[in-house]
Amino acid sequence: MNLPKKHEALLWSIAFPGFGQFLNGRIIKGIVLIVLEFLVNTRSNFNSAIISSFNGEIRKAVEVTNYQWLMFYPCLYMFALWDAYRDADGKKTPFSYLPFVFGGFFVTVGLIYSQRIKPFGLLFGPVFLPMIFLIPGLFIGFIIYKFALKTNQK
Prior knowledge:
Layout: H1 5-15, H2 19-23, H3 27-44, H4 46-54, H5 58-64, H6 67-70, H7 73-89, H8 98-112, H9 120-153
């Protein structure tokens, strides 16, 4: 089974932001996204937070996370996904950015409240709670996307 190029680019960007841009031949944009990914990831201590979270050490994940830097990550990540998906498509589908924008927004909100929503913040921390918030963000984004397409066709 062969994936459409836009899905392949999207999956490579999920693995590492910037790789989808390389696949699409957007080398400079890919390099910029990889540098930004590396900068935000290292300054926020995100990998340490991920390791601690996956080992069930949520309090340690909260302690090592630099939230000022990690706040940049959701929008950077979702932009890289959308950009790779859009460029690989060849056609510019109107409003295709909406699920990605709402996904990034909801992940950011999940990150902001990851220490404050009791008991979920203490159970899921700065990694898992934002990931859970991605689900309603994408869902709402897809609903608005479908609505915008229908409204635009009239």
